[in-house]
Amino acid sequence: MTRPLSPSVHEAAMPPIITNEIDYWDHYAHGVTDKPREEALKHAFGWTQYEGHGPGDELLGDPLSALELGCGRGNAVAALALKGVEATGVDLSAAQCEEARQRWGDIPGARYLHAEVLGLLATTDQRWDAIYSIWGALWFTDPKRLLPLIRKRLSPGGRLVFSHAPAVPGSYGIQGMYGNGFKGRRVWIYRWAYEPATWADLLYRHGFVDIHARVEPAPEREHVGTLIVTAQAGR
Ligand SMILES: C[S@@+](CC[C@H](N)C(=O)[O-])C[C@H]1O[C@@H](n2cnc3c(N)ncnc32)[C@H](O)[C@@H]1O
Questions:
Q1: Looking at residue 183, what is its pLDDT?
Q2: In this structure, what CATH number is given to the domain that contains residue 174?
Q3: Burial class of residue 43 in the structure, from the number of CB atoms within 10 Å of its CB (0-12 exposed, 13-18 middle, 19+ buried)
Q4: Beta carbon of 48 within 6 Å of any ligand 1 atom
Q5: How far is the C-alpha of 54 from the C-alpha of 5, rounded, in Å?
Q6: What is the pLDDT of residue 13?
Q7: Which H helix or E strand runs over 24?
Q8: Which atom of ligand 1 lies closest to the CA of 141?
Q9: Name one GO molecular function term (predicted).
């Protein structure tokens, strides 16, 4: 007869129960390792997956107010607030928002909202000078639904900036992926992938101007670069 596992060993061996997108992102949140505060702030604002590489917050212009879509731990929001920007981060993961508030809640001007981006943007009447997303919710939301809402919530001439992985060549549009492994509970999430020219076209058709969409090369040749897009709300 096999000996039953003690409760603690049994619990440790249990696979996570992930059944939907929110569970997925909460689970993701628990896997994030936080650096000490000062160190986290040093590279808090970056668009690429390579620390200290690529452009910084200058892409936002000189906003008085900014909203980050899918802010995760909220480091970038904290860094902007320390520069005097009224900076708000929104994230659908309660775990991420809670961590962000605990870590950065003492910084005047930094605010973290627990919400889903489409719901927030559709119901608020606030406007921001800059709306941005760093490998965040913009990547995981249908741009045809999201871009009109962003356009409405940007101040006239306000900027939209976002970054995420470039499309895998030949694989464009909606991309589904299982989020809990192929043997776990069924959960999937979606991402949207386009070439820079397609992003430019999409943005233009949704009322954006001065659009720059490109792939920032990685620090090493042949490594995965970063799609970075900037655009301005047409007046
Ligand atoms: C890959 S993480 C990036 C977090 C952060 N921007 C960073 O650079 O560390 C993506 C974040 O987007 C959030 N997210 C995904 N879809 C979202 C949505 N529809 N509304 C709000 N947040 C969302 C997730 O909860 C997660 O914290």
A1: 83
A2: 3.40.50.150
A3: middle
A4: no
A5: 50
A6: 59
A7: helix 21-30
A8: 19
A9: S-adenosylmethionine-dependent methyltransferase activity
Residue 60 domain flag: yes
> Ligand 1 centre and the CA of 194: distance in Å?
19
Q: Is residue 12 part of a domain?
A: no
Residue 135 sits at φ, ψ, to 5 deg, of: 50, 35
115 in a structural domain: yes
Specify the pairing of strand 154-164 against strand 128-134.
Answer: parallel
Residues 177-202: tens digit of each pLDDT? 998 888 878 889 999 999 999 999 99
User: At which residue do the structure tokens 């690429």 appear?
Assistant: 48
Ligand 1 pocket residue status of 138, Cβ below 6 Å: no
Indicate the top mutation candidate among 18, 73, 92 to test ligand 1's pocket, ranked by most ligand atoms within 8 A of CB. Answer: 92
Domain count of the fold of the chain: 1
For residue 8, is pLDDT > 50? Answer: no
Provide the token pair at 231.
């655009």
Closest protein CA for atom 27 of ligand 1: 72
Is the beta carbon of 137 within 6 A of some atom in ligand 1? yes
Distance CA 66, CA 68 (A): 7
Atom of ligand 1 nearest to the CA of 29: 27
Q: Is the CB of 57 under 6 A from ligand 1?
A: no
Q: Is any atom of ligand 1 closer than 6 Å to the C-beta of 25?
A: yes
In a domain, 131, yes or no: yes
DSSP secondary structure letter of residue 218: P
Question: What is the CB neighbour count within 10 angstroms for residue 141?
Answer: 23
Query: Containing domain of residue 115, as a range?
Result: 18-233
Tens of pLDDT, residues 109-168: 999 999 999 999 999 999 999 999 999 999 999 999 999 999 999 999 999 999 999 999
